[in-house]
Structures are given as C-alpha cells and as structure tokens.
Amino acid sequence: MEPINARSMLDEAKSSPGPAVERRLRLTPAALEVVSQKVRAAYSPVVIAGLVRLADFVMLSLVGVAVYLAHVARISGFGWDYPAAILTMAGTAVVCFQAADIYEVQVFRGKLRQMTRMASAWSLVFLLFIGVSFFAKIGGSVSRLWLSTFFIVGLVALVLQRTALRSLIRRWGRQGRLARRTIIVGADANGEHLIRELLAQEDSDLHILGVFDDRSDKRSLDTVAGTPKLGKVDHIIEFARRTRVDLVLFALPISAETRILEMLKKLWVLPVDIRLSAHTNKLRFRPRSYSYLGKVPTLDVFEAPITDWDLVMKWMFDRIVGGFALLALLPVMGLVALAIKLDSPGPVLFRQKRFGFNNERIDVFKFRSLYHDQADPMAKTVVTKGDTRVTRVGRFIRKSSLDELPQLYNVVFKGNLSLVGPRPHALQGKVQTQLFDEAVDGYFARHRVKPGITGWAQINGWRGEIDSEQKIQKRVEFDLYYIENWSVLFDTYILLKTPISLMTKNENAY
Asked: Which ranges of 69-188 would DSSP assign to H, the alpha helix?
C-alpha cells in the first residue's frame, strides 16, 4: 500500500464541510504527565548502521595496511598489489557482515550472537581470499605472516570495536535515543490485543506512550493492556507538539474506513509515521503491501518526510553551503547594517517569532526595515505597498530580500532554519481577518520540515504581501510539493534560481 499523497489529502480536506481550525487544546492530566518528561533527541538506526559499515571498512583497511607496512613493505619494498587486496578484503568483509545480518541495532545490543556471526564472516573472507589466490596461482607470492597477522589483529580490532559499540548502543537505549515513541489510536479490545502483541516481542524498539480514542462509551477503556488512555484524537496534534512522537499506530480495523479517514484528515499535518495495524483484519493484501513492527503487519499511510540519511544530507548541505554563503555575504551584510544605522535610529537587527518545524515557536533574525517606534514584532499588520512604517533603506532591502540575510545565522548556528524550505510565517499572520490556518485547511502540514530562507513557492512568484486566500493557498500547495519531492538537487536548483527570481518576480514584495 503506497503512502497517501499529501496534496490529495489537502484537496480532500478543502472539499470537506467547515474549516479545520487548529488551536492549542488543554491536555488531560495523564497526557501532561507524559509530555512533562525530559526526552532526548532520537538517533536513526539506519544512519547508525551505515556509520558502523563505514567504520568497519576504514578500520580493517588501516589494520591491513599497517600490518603490510610492518611485515612486508619493510623487507620487500612498497607495492600497490597488497593495498589493493586489502581494500578488496575490507569491502568483502562489509558485504559478508551484511549477509550475516549483524548491521542491525538490535544485534549491536547483544554480545554472543554478534561476536560469533562476525568471527564466522571474517573467517569466510580469508577463506575466499585463499581460494582466489590458489586458483589465480599467486598463493606462493602472498606473505603467510602478513595473512595470519592481518586475520588475528583484524579480529581483535573488530571484537574491541563491537564491545565499545555495544556499550554505546545500550547507553543510548537507556536514554531513549533509539526508541520509537509510539501512540496507539483505539482504546478497545483491538487496541488491547495490539499492545499485548507489541509488548510480547523481544528486542522491540517501540516505546508505547499511551492510547487515544474519541469514544466515551464502555467500549473505550481507561487503561489498555496496562497503557493509559491519554485523551481524544483531537489531542494528538497538541500532544505530538509538546513531546517527541515517532509513530501513530491505528488499532482500528480497516473496515472502519470513515472513522479512519476523518482522523487522518486531522493527523496528516504531523511529521510522524502513521500506520494502520493489520493484525486483526481478515482481508489480506500481498506480502509486499505490509511493513512489520516485529511480527505485527501494518499498512503505511503517511511517512515522516526527510528522515535518516536524507536528514543527514540536508543538515550537511545547510551547514556547509550556509557557512560559505555567510562568509561570502559578510561584506554585503556589513554595508546593509551601516545603511540602516545611518538611515533611521534604532537597532540594526530584530527578532520575530515565527512558526518552525512541527509548529514550534522560533526566533528569526532579520534586518530592521521598519521605523523602530513602529515595529510590529508579532506581524499582526501586513506590510502593504506604500506602507509609511517602512524606512527608505527598508524598502530596498525588502524588495531585494536583503533583510533576510541574517537568517543565515539561524541556519548555520541555531539550526532552526534550513537554506531551503517553506517560509516561516509569523504567528499572527492573517489574510484579511482570518489567520492563515483558518483560511487554508491543512496549513500546518507545511511545518513537517524545517522552514527555509527561500523556497519553491518563493521562486515561483508566491512571495511578499498576502492579501487573498488564493495567495496563501498557492504557497501551501507549492510548499507541500517541495516536501513530497525533496532532494539535494532540488534544494540546489532552488538556491540557484533564487537570485533570478528576486529580480524578476518581486512585484508583491514591499
């Protein structure tokens, strides 16, 4: 089952009766107790496994080369045949370790199973090397002292590395960095059955926080398999924005299609994985349609955008490209700061509260473009054409978007902005008399990724003043397209296109 397209969900939400107004709800005491607990940032098991693969390759290569330099090159002189063989053996070892299924976080936690599989795979690498050497008739030219020493020292290095890794993984486990913080939707017999199945599995990385259910009759239990009911489905959004939630799992049967769709219209704006449990369904799909939580089959509905290695790539892109951009633009920023200081009294910079990732409130830095005594830190009043609050320098830097340059500090040092992403709108941003989230259903879905200095909507002309529902609607549609189609190349294209867009599509920027 393919993940549901976010734009199609937005289109369906627009056709549903009544605006989906989102406001902060008061959580139940049980939910408040959970969100008050300190939660550390999560580490991706996919990234951890990838880094361990890289560490294995580098370490074994270094060990092989060190043994070669100590035993062979010192006597026979340096040649490239041994280093080439060493790199090949190190790469083969990583492939064999992968085939032995030891690149999994749950395996890293163990000791005996991990060590025996690793020793067997490492031995296989040398048997393969000896076999290839024999059939290639080069066995006589290979140093037996080097080969045996490489095997023993490499195995010792692997054991020591895995011992340290096991200690590190277990510590991260105790800190909750490897747990998938999960909430269950459905506080009935189905939910109880599902939770019991999940809790009965060994080495599970799921941490079930609680259960949510809209029903208030006797079918809805206050405690489900020892797990507390934390509130109604409407509370999930507020709950997920006060504490880390990685997975929302529906225990409702797929036959409850209407109820599930109504709930998904509310929850799809969250940056979390959403799945339907298929453990009680009599209707069976093809095996490839399922993903599994241990042995529990589930159907993927929504996936959190930009995760695992994609998140690492975007983080590196922001820090590296953003750092170079900040250094290159320092002279321009200095001139802008001087012009602002000479033009009108007041500070050069100001901070404004904006919506960030997952609706968190962040401080965004900008060059001051309004007269200081007429500043509007909450952006309650939209800047319009000919606005008397804008200074002479302010008109120029707003038109050219030079007022946004200090946000590079947010990208490089604070990490709450990206170079590219949906623009961070002001908390009190309005179109006519409506707040943005009142004017556009699914508006907060654009906050499933970090906001950016520039974005897909901006380079397509949707920047500047928002004086109609169509303008904010278009921004949201372009932002959702960006989220669904993100790649490093897409970010690069948007960055390169931004200067051209600033010169040709600035008619709405005042």
From this structure: 74-76, 81-99, 105-109, 112-135, 144-175
Q: What is the pTM of this model?
A: 0.85
Cα 30 from Cα 27, distance rounded (Å)? 8
Helices and strands, number each (H, E), in the chain: 18, 14
- Region of 101 please: left (phi>0), alpha (psi -120 to 50) or beta: left
Query: What's the CATH number for 6-36+179-304?
Result: 3.40.50.720
Instruction: Give Cα separations from 220 to 27, 231, 247, 392 (angstroms).
Output: 18, 11, 21, 62
Two structure tokens written together for 53: 């693969």
The predicted pLDDT at position 20 comes to: 41
Strand partners, 184: 211, 249
Structural tokens at position 371: 């007269």
Query: What pLDDT sits at residue 280?
Result: 61
| Mean pLDDT score of the chain | 86
In the prediction, which pLDDT does 187 show?
A: 87
pLDDT for res 36: 92
What are the residue ranges in the chain where pLDDT is below 70? 1-24, 137-140, 217, 279-289, 376-382, 384, 465, 505-510
The pLDDT of residue 1 is: 47
Are 310 and 484 in contact by the 8 Å Cβ rule? The answer is no
Nearest to 395, CA basis, from 354, 355, 367: 367
Q: How much helix, strand and coil, in percent to the nearest 5, is found in the chain?
A: 55, 15, 35
Residues 6+ apart with CB under 8 A from 468: 431, 432
Question: CATH 3.40.50.720 region(s) of the chain?
Answer: 6-36+179-304
Contact between 239 and 231 under an 8 Å Cβ cutoff? The reply is yes
Q: What is the side-by-side order of every strand in the sheet holding 206-212?
A: 223-224, 227-231, 206-212, 180-185, 247-250, 273-277, 296-302, 291-293
Give the per-residue pLDDT at 366. 92
